[in-house]
Amino acid sequence: MSTRIYLVGSDTGCGKTSVAAAILRCARGHGLKAIPFKPAASGGDDPEVLSPPPPRCCPA
Q1: pLDDT < 50 regions, the chain
Q2: How far is the C-alpha of 60 from the C-alpha of 26, rounded, in Å?
Q3: Which of 37, 34, 36, 15 is nearest to 26 (CA)?
């Protein structure tokens, strides 16, 4: 059976993407098959309201 880790945060911009990237990098560094999955995205679609996308944390 596979192990699953769920990462949740209370706000946009609280660092979920950075933490997820660090967890994935660490897991892959230990030889684990780590696959990210984002089942949902919330927020509006007004570009004046949305934050810019976060910088890429690590190479693909």
Answers
A1: none
A2: 14
A3: 34
